[in-house]
Design brief:
The complex is a heterodimer of chains A (516) and B (174). With 516 residues, chain A is an alpha+beta fold. Chain A is built from 18 helices and 20 strands. Chain A has a seven-stranded antiparallel sheet with strand order 7-6-5-11-10-9-8, with helices on both faces. A six-stranded antiparallel sheet of chain A has the order 14-13-12-17-16-15. In chain A, helix 2 crosses helix 4 and helix 3 runs antiparallel to helix 4. The two termini of chain A are 30 Å apart. In chain B, strand 2 and strand 3 (97-102) form a beta hairpin. The longest helix of chain B has 30 residues, at 26-55. Classes of the chains: A alpha+beta (516), B alpha+beta (174). The interface between A and B is large, with 40 and 35 residues. Strand 18 of chain A pairs antiparallel with strand 4 of chain B, so a sheet runs across the interface.
Chain lengths: 516, 174
C-alpha cells in the first residue's frame, strides 16, 4: 500500500495546541471526577486519605497528558493524514484523504474560551471516529479541513471520477430555528423534568432530606400553622405549589432548549448536510448523504398541539454510534442526530428529501396489517390488563375488581382499533416507509439499499392467527425505538414483503455516490 | 411442513437452489448442550425442593411432585428437542444471498444478502470438532442482527458455503 510507505518516509511535524494537555487531562479525569466529589462529600474527616488516592490516580494521567502533548504530531502526506504518537512505542496512523468522510468539531465552554476545538476524523468504516485530535486551535482546524478536502477532491479528479465537490458550491440554508421555535421545542420536549429528577435524586443521595436537616427549615416556615388557615387556603397553597413547580420545570426546559439548540442551522453543501447548534457547547456535524440510513419523523401529542413535528436520522457508524457506546458521557446530545428538533409539518417533506434524495413522497400506497390484527391486539391488551392490574385490584377491592376490569375494556378496544388504524406500510421502488403509533405518531423512511438483513418471526400465537412479524435491520439503529419492526402482518404478505426487501437489499448499490 | 413462510412458494424464482438441512451429526452435539442446560435446571429445582423439605417438612408432596414432573420433562426434552431443532433448521443459498430458517416454537427466517456480509467465521468447539460439525457465523454492518449463525454444518460444507457467500466486489455496503 502506498500510504504505508508514505508513513515511513513522511515525518509529521505539526503539533497539537499548546493547551492540549489540559483537555486530555480533563477528558481522562471525567471518570475520576465523580470519585473526587464522592470523596469530598462522603468522608469529611478522612478526606486526606481520599485525596491521596485521587492524587495517585490523577498524577499519572497528567503525566500521560503532558507526554502526549509533547510527542503527538500530525501532518499531511501525499496520500493521507498522518498522526504519530509516542517515541519509544511509536504508533503511526495514516488515513487516506479519499477515505475521510467528515471532519467534525466539538467545542465546550472551555474550548470556546480558549479558542480551540476537538476534532474527530470520520471515515466510512463505521463504529467510532477513526481518529480524535484533542485539541487544535481554530486556525489549525481550518487548515486541516481545507487540506483534507482539497486533497480529496484532487485525488478523485486524478482517479478520473467526476469531481465530487465542484469549486466551492454555494451553501444552501435548509432550516434555521429562531428563539420562538426553540421555546416551542422546550415546551414539547420538557427535558427540564429529567434535570429536576436528577437533582432531587442527587440531593436525596447526599442526605440533605434527613429529618434533622429538614426539620429546622420546616419550623422556620409558616407551614406549621397551616391547619389553622383552614381547608381552602391549604388547597390553594397546594395547587399553587404544583403549578409553580410545573411552570419552573417548563421554564427550565425552555432555557435548556435555548442553550442546547441555540442558533440551530441545517444547511446543504454539495449534497451533504451540515448542522450546527449550541450556545455553550457548539456542535458542528456533517451528515454525509451516503451515511444517512433512515429518517424518523416523530410527532407527539404536544408536537401536534403546537402544529410541529421533529426529524431525526440514523447515521452509519460515526459519532452517533461512538457516543451511543458510552465512550464520552459529556456529549450525550450527539446520540440523537437531528435533522430538525422541531419544524413545521409542511417543511418536513422538504427536509426528508434533502436527506434522502432517492425518496419521493408524492403518492404512497399504504397497506395495513392482517385482518385479525385488531382482535389479536385487543386480546393481548385484555390478558395483560387482567394479569397486571385486575389481580392486585381483586386482592384489595374484592368484587369491585370485576367492575374495573370491564370498565377498561372499551378503552382497550379503542387502543387496538387505533393501533391497527395507524400502523401502515408501503413499499416503493427505492424506499420503504412505515408509520405507527396514535398518541405519538412515528414515520420511518428506509431507502431499500440501506437494508442489511431481513427477519421473519413466527411465535406459536402468530401461527394460530396466520400472522408473522417482520424485522428489517439497518446500520445505526442503536435505540430500540428506532428499530424497524412490524408485528401482526398477514403471513403471506409478510413473506412476499420479506423476499422483496431481501432482493432490494441485495441489489447493487446504486446510490453510492454522494452527488446523488 | 406447516412452518414459517413456505420456501417453495411461487414468489421465488426458478434458479434458486434447493433448501438444505444441516449435518445430522449436529444432533449429538446439541443433545450434549441441551443436557448441560437441563442439568442446570434440574440442579436449581433440586435446591428448591431441598429448601422446601428442610424448612417446611409438611410440604414434601409438593417437592416430590416437582421432581416427578420436572425430571421426565427435562429428560424428554434432552432426547427430543435436538431432533426437532434439526428438523426445523433449513438453509438455502441463491444468487442474492442466504436464508436461514430455524426454531421449533418461535420460528425465524433470516434473509441475508451476500453483499451485506462484512466478514464471516467458521468456528468449532471441542464437541463439535469430535463430531465433525461447525458453526458458520456471518456478520453484517446492521445494528440488531450483527451476527447471523448457522449451526451444525459439516466443517467442509461450512467452508465451502462461506467461500460461496464471499462477495466479489469491494463494495462498501453501508
Amino acid at each position: 500500500m502506498p500510504s504505508e510507505q508514505d508513513a515511513e518516509e513522511f515525518r509529521p511535524e505539526k503539533r497539537l495546541h499548546s493547551l492540549s494537555w489540559l483537555f486530555i487531562f480533563l477528558h481522562h479525569n471525567r471518570a475520576i471526577l465523580p470519585l473526587f466529589v464522592a470523596v469530598l462529600v462522603g468522608a469529611r474527616k478522612e478526606a486526606y486519605i481520599g485525596l491521596t488516592v485521587v492524587g495517585a490516580l490523577t498524577v499519572p494521567v497528567l503525566l500521560n497528558a503532558l507526554w502526549l502533548q509533547f510527542t503527538m504530531r500530525y501532518g499531511f502526506s501525499e496520500s493521507g493524514l498522518v498522526i504519530r504518537e509516542g517515541v519509544f512505542f511509536q504508533n503511526v496512523r495514516t488515513i487516506d484523504y479519499t477515505r475521510i468522510e467528515n471532519v467534525d468539531t466539538t467545542r465546550g465552554i472551555m474550548h470556546r474560551l480558549l479558542g480551540v476545538a476537538q476534532v474527530q476524523i470520520e471515515t466510512s468504516s463505521g463504529g467510532k471516529a477513526e481518529a480524535s485530535i484533542r485539541v487544535l486551535g481554530l486556525q489549525a482546524v481550518e487548515e486541516l479541513r481545507a487540506h483534507i478536502f482539497e486533497q480529496r477532491t484532487q485525488g478523485q479528479e486524478a482517479e478520473g471520477g467526476a469531481p465530487a465537490i465542484a469549486a466551492e458550491p454555494p451553501e444552501e440554508l435548509l432550516l434555521s430555528l429562531d428563539a420562538g421555535e426553540l421555546i416551542r421545542y422546550g415546551l414539547i420536549d420538557n427535558r427540564g423534568m429529567v434535570i429536576v429528577a436528577a437533582i432531587v435524586a442527587l440531593l436525596a443521595d447526599s442526605g440533605i432530606f434527613k429529618e434533622e436537616n429538614i426539620e429546622p427549615i420546616l419550623r422556620s416556615l409558616p407551614f406549621l400553622e397551616l391547619p389553622e388557615l383552614g381547608l381552602m387556603i391549604s388547597i390553594v397553597l397546594g395547587v399553587s405549589f404544583v403549578l409553580i413547580l410545573t411552570l419552573a420545570i417548563r421554564v427550565l426546559s425552555i432555557v435548556m432548549a435555548l442553550v442546547v439548540f441555540h442558533d440551530f442551522r441545517l444547511s446543504r453543501k454539495a449534497g451533504d448536510l451540515h448542522s450546527q447548534y449550541g450556545l455553550l457547547t457548539r456542535i458542528s456535524l456533517t451528515l454525509r448523504q451516503r451515511r444517512i440510513q433512515v429518517v424518523h419523523q416523530k410527532s407527539s401529542l404536544l408536537h401536534r398541539l403546537f402544529k410541529r413535528t421533529s426529524l431525526q436520522v440514523d447515521l452509519a457508524g460515526g459519532i452517533a454510534a461512538a457516543e451511543g457506546a458510552g465512550q464520552n458521557s459529556g456529549n450525550k446530545a450527539l446520540r440523537e442526530v437531528w435533522l430538525a428538533p422541531v419544524c413545521l409539518p409542511s417543511d418536513a417533506e422538504r427536509l426528508i428529501l434533502s436527506a434522502l434524495p432517492q425518496v419521493s413522497l408524492g403518492q404512497i400506497n399504504w397497506n395495513g396489517l392482517a385482518p385479525r390484527a385488531r382482535a389479536r391486539r385487543f386480546r393481548q391488551g385484555v390478558y395483560t390488563w387482567a394479569i397486571v392490574i385486575t389481580a392486585p385490584a381483586a386482592w384489595f377491592l374484592g368484587w369491585w375488581a370485576i367492575g374495573i376490569f370491564f370498565a377498561v375494556l372499551p378503552l382497550l378496544w379503542l387502543n387496538a382499533s387505533l393501533y391497527v388504524k395507524t400502523t401502515a406500510w408501503a413499499l416503493h421502488d427505492t424506499f420503504f416507509i412505515y408509520k405507527r403509533g396514535w398518541l405519538t405518531r412515528k414515520i420511518s423512511i428506509v431507502p431499500l439499499n440501506r437494508i442489511q438483513s431481513v427477519r421473519l418471526t413466527e411465535s406459536p400465537f402468530d401461527r394460530r392467527y396466520r400472522m408473522a412479524n417482520l424485522k428489517a435491520d439497518t446500520a445505526g439503529a442503536s435505540a430500540p425505538g428506532r428499530r424497524f419492526e412490524i408485528a401482526f402482518l398477514d403471513r403471506e404478505v409478510a413473506g412476499c414483503l420479506a423476499v422483496d426487501l431481501y432482493r432490494a437489499a441485495a441489489a447493487p448499490l446504486t446510490q453510492k455516490s454522494y452527488t446523488g | 411442513m406447516n412452518g414459517i413462510i413456505n420456501l417453495n412458494s411461487d414468489t421465488l424464482p426458478d434458479n434458486v437452489d434447493q433448501e438444505h438441512s444441516v449435518d445430522p451429526r449436529a444432533i449429538k452435539v446439541w443433545r450434549w448442550s441441551v443436557l448441560g442446560h437441563s442439568l442446570f435446571v434440574i440442579f436449581l429445582f433440586l435446591v428448591g425442593a431441598l429448601f422446601l423439605l428442610l424448612n417446611y417438612r409438611y410440604l414434601w408432596p409438593v417437592a416430590a411432585a416437582i421432581c416427578a414432573v420436572i425430571l421426565p420433562v427435562l429428560i424428554l426434552t434432552t432426547l427430543r428437542y435436538p431432533k426437532a431443532y434439526y428438523r426445523h433448521l433449513r438453509y438455502r443459498v441463491d444468487d442474492e444471498g442466504i436464508r436461514i430458517q430455524k426454531g421449533v416454537f418461535w420460528r425465524t427466517l433470516s434473509f441475508l444478502p451476500r453483499v451485506r456480509i462484512q466478514h464471516s467465521d467458521v468456528s468449532q468447539g471441542p464437541l463439535q470438532r469430535r463430531h465433525g460439525v461447525s458453526t458458520l457465523k456471518l456478520y453484517t454492518a446492521g445494528s440488531q442482527f450483527t451476527k447471523i449463525e448457522l449451526d451444525g454444518l459439516e466443517y467442509d460444507t461450512a467452508m465451502a458455503l462461506r467461500n460461496q457467500l464471499q462477495r466479489n466486489e469491494t463494495d462498501d455496503a453501508v
